[in-house]
Fold this sequence. Notes:
Structural class: alpha/beta
Order of helices and strands: HEHEHEHEHHHHEHEHEH
Largest sheet: 5 strands, parallel
Distance between the termini: 46 Å
Mean pLDDT: 94
Number of helices: 11
Oligomer: single chain
Strand content: 5-15%
Number of strands: 7
Radius of gyration: 20 Å
Low-confidence stretches: none
Amino acid sequence: MTLITPLLAPVIRLFSPAGSKARLSILIYHRVAPEPDPLFPLEVDAQRFTRQMQALAQHFHVLPLREAVDRLQSGTLPSGSACITFDDGYADNAQVALPILKNLGLPATFFVASGYLDGGVMFNDRVIEAIRATSLPQLDLSEISLGYPAVSTLPEKRTAIRSILGQIKYRSPEERHSFCQYIEQVSGTEVPRHLMMTSHQVRLLHHHGMTIGGHTLHHPILASLQNELEAREEIRLNKEHLEQIIEAPVDLFAYPNGVPDQDYRAEHAVMVRSLGYRAAVTTARGVATLSSDPFQLPRFTPWEPSISRYSLRLVQNLLNTRPQLATL
């Protein structure tokens, strides 16, 4: 597949042995577009995802996350074990990613923010799609203290999106909704309502052997919520909602945004455990080991367009055995 392929197998065996010294790689994805997106050309599309999954299947033992966690804790994980996960619940997960995964015989876990199913739109997509579709050269967002971003070219749109999302990400869900509503109004656009999965598509993933995990109802940054009860209800109601949809237990969780001590705290890990989950994943880079906290398992995204660099990034991540953790 690549010039470095013959070198990868022994390196992976060396740094990710079987048994009690195993290192588990957990990959994060969000969307898999059917075609390359001109606004975000580095995002994963169907062709790139297929190549990445072929490389992953060639070099690693790809396991369902639940099985991998159990085998990691029992010291029976195979050499070069890896898991595939998706966050948020985008419709293209079922429309584009699922057929590719099925064709290659690869399992994956889909962490779903169930409050956006059946026509909802996440706050980041409201910003992205409003700016993508606007024909205005500049937006006057001074009334909400976001300035006058230029949006006439694709690079300007990308810069504006990055800046706006950075400024509103850590606000409350109510504030984010208000900001997005104003941005949509000023941009003169209508945001599409088909970006997230339907309940039927969640059931379809489950029917085809994929794992459904919790991701809160509305994807709030847990550490930014006003009180613990609000955070607990976001986690609890999401779990109940997903279990009603698939008529099966939901016992794996992903923290929204997932940066330890910034997006969630140690008390949220305790909360997740108390609500009946068996493991949870973060967005801290690195690999999980036998000594890892099962409620703070690291994940990473190898953002590389070429398969050679993608493969090398997978190997590089194996060296990080001390990922960041939220601490009390």
